[in-house]
UniProtKB/TrEMBL annotation:
SMART domains for this protein: KIND
Coiled coil: none
UniProt record similarity statement: Belongs to the spire family.
Organism: Scopus umbretta
InterPro entries per record: KIND_dom, Spire
PANTHER family for this protein: KIND DOMAIN-CONTAINING PROTEIN, SPIRE
Major localisation: membrane
Protein name (record): SPIR2 protein
Domain KIND: 13-176
Length: 199
């Protein structure tokens, strides 16, 4: 168990919490960044880091965490000795595609269809297996990472660019949370309620 310091510094936050806090969908740039950082994390886990990749199961925005340093991680679901096996890449990418699609659609009226740029739509179609060319081999982690890199005018800067984008997303969330707490506290003061340091 991780011990929190007295300031209760938050090191990571789920994508679901970010979406709830902002009350609007992520931008395309944030979607590219989350996708890239998640794939980089999967790549690390596939190389034998703990937890093993087959224990990762992406189920909604609550399964993905954005860290203060701009990295990403996943909620781990321990399934009794059952490995997804060799299809782990394709399955996880499909789940990731669903979550990113959800994050881009968050809070938008179901009657309204969000217009996505061609490169992002193409990438999501690949990840969600919506591509008509059924004969094509399954998309791999490397395919998605490469697409994210090539989305930038300087592909070599992908790692630092996407890390910075996710770090900003985390910082914006923390600042908004701070603001919400201040507003909530000042309301309590006006109502004459006793204040507690931590709710």
């Amino acid at each position: 168990m991780e011990f929190l310091c007295c300031e209760q510094k938050i090191a990571k936050v789920s994508l679901a919490e970010i979406l709830r806090c902002f009350e609007h969908p992520v931008s395309e740039e944030q979607a590219w960044a989350v996708c890239f950082q998640c794939c980089r994390k999967m790549e690390q886990l596939a190389q034998g880091l703990c937890p093993p990749l087959h224990s990762v199961f992406i189920k909604g925005p609550g399964s993905i965490f954005i860290h203060a340093d701009g990295s990403a991680s996943f909620k781990v679901y321990h399934k009794s000795g059952k490995s997804i096996g060799s299809c782990v890449d394709a399955k996880l990418l499909e789940y990731l595609g669903v979550v990113i699609y959800e994050a881009l659609d968050w809070g938008i009226d179901s009657q309204v269809e969000r217009e996505l740029s061609d490169p992002l739509e193409k990438l999501l179609c690949l990840m969600l297996k919506l591509d008509e060319e059924a004969m094509k081999p399954a998309v791999t982690l490397q395919d998605v990472i490469k697409a994210c890199e090539e989305h930038l005018s300087r592909p070599s800067e992908a790692t630092s660019h996407y890390e910075m984008t996710c770090r900003s997303l985390f910082t914006e969330y923390m600042e908004l949370q701070k603001l919400v707490t201040i507003i909530h506290t000042s309301k309590e003061v006006h109502l004459g309620s006793p204040l507690s340091c931590y709710s």
